[in-house]
Amino acid sequence: MLAIARARAKELGHPVDLRLGDAQALEFDDESFDTVTCTLGFCTIPDTTTAAREAFRVMRPGGVLLMMEHVRSPAPIVRGGQKLLEPLAVRFEADHLLREPLDYLLDVGFEIDDVKRSKWGIVERLRAHKPG
Predict the structure, then answer these.
(1) What is the value of pTM for the model shown?
(2) Above pLDDT 90, what percent of the chain?
(3) What percent of the chain has pLDDT over 70?
(4) Distance between alpha carbon 59 and the CA centroid of its chain, in Å?
């Protein structure tokens, strides 16, 4: 994926710094970024709280976190299906279907600005910020 991204950036003439890394141990200085984004990533990160702390650490005060994740549904019948599929999804894809960012982002220190759900409540778009 990095090779494709580098080729596409070169084709478009956009300078980029693309790196392979661990979301639980980011190789960036404290308060390096105004915005942190994550799309469908926290469902496979082993320790979501550690990764959220790292995002918080590298974000400047007032910085924004933008996320899109699949989450546990508030609809009982959909959540029941997720519970049935969770063991297989975790075993074969390391994909946790029942995680919810609001369970760990607040504890890390983020303030939630906006949450929108779609697709029977299993897709969540979230905007949060680091106070400061």
Answers:
(1) 0.89
(2) 98
(3) 100
(4) 14
Tracing tokens 């478009």 back to the chain, one arrives at 12
pLDDT of residue 118: 93
Can you tell me the distance from the alpha carbon of 27 to that of 95, in angstroms, rounded to the nearest whole number? 24
As a three-state string, the secondary structure of the chain is: CHHHHHHHHHHHCCCCCCCCCCCCCCCCCCCCEEEEEEECCCCCCCCHHHHHHHHHHHEEEEEEEEEEEECCCCCHHHHHHHHHHHHHHHHHHCCCCCCCCHHHHHHHCCEEEEEEEECCCCEEEEEEECCC
Are the C-beta atoms of 64 and 128 separated by less than 8 Å?
yes
- Give the model's pLDDT for residue 68: 97
Cα–Cα distance, 99 to 124 (Å, whole number):
11
Q: Which pLDDT value is given to residue 54?
A: 98
Q: How far, in Å, CA of 83 to CA of 33, rounded?
A: 36
N residues, the chain: 132
Q: Give the pLDDT mean for 22-43.
A: 96
